[in-house]
Design goal:
With 165 residues, this protein is of the alpha+beta class. It is built from 2 helices and 8 strands; from the N terminus they run H-E-E-E-E-E-E-E-H-E. Helices cover 18% and strands 38% of the residues. A hairpin with a 2-residue loop joins strand 4 and strand 5.
């Protein structure tokens, strides 16, 4: 019985990791607009290999601490109807995050990001591996879930590499 339960749990974790995509959450990853934008993200970003994002334009938003993000060309695996977002950045335990609110909704989508150089933006889907989405009851509990999940294998998935046009 223990082997069967362990097998099912392992299989579920593998399926979660392989099919990870941004999950909408009702809470932002930080107090909205509390951090200055990372100006290096501003620009037109393209990918010929991503199944999700092909071309994205990121510009300064309506205030100093937000971005206006528009999906110009989506890949075959892009599964959202929204193409325009307001974005914000935050940092947790040394990792940078871009969280976006779809226009006309209260849903947020969060990505971990890296910029190894000025012309490369790498986005990762994140997985909440501790308590899952159900454990997110506030901005602070979301941050706590991300922080604890970062310490586990499988936190980052769905790597998308974009180049500045």
């Amino acid at each position: 019985m223990k082997k069967t339960t362990l097998y099912i749990l392992s299989l579920s974790a593998i399926v979660l990791i392989l099919t990870a995509c941004p999950v909408s959450i009702s809470y932002p990853l930080d107090a909205v607009g509390s951090n200055k934008i990372d100006k290096k993200i501003i620009g037109t970003w393209v990918s010929d290999s991503s199944d999700v994002l092909k071309k994205v334009v990121v510009s300064k938003g309506s205030d100093e601490n937000s971005y206006a993000i528009e999906i110009i060309e989506a890949g075959s695996n892009y599964n959202l109807s929204q193409k325009k977002f307001t974005g914000y950045v935050t940092e947790i335990d040394g990792k940078k995050f871009l969280y976006n609110r779809a226009e006309g909704t209260a849903s947020y989508y969060t990505y971990c990001y890296e910029m190894p150089d000025k012309k490369t933006l790498i986005l990762y889907d994140i997985s909440l591996l501790d308590g899952g989405v159900d454990a997110v009851k506030s901005v602070q509990s979301y941050r706590d879930q991300v922080s604890s999940s970062m310490k586990k294998s499988g936190f980052l998935s769905g790597k998308q590499t974009l180049k500045k046009e």
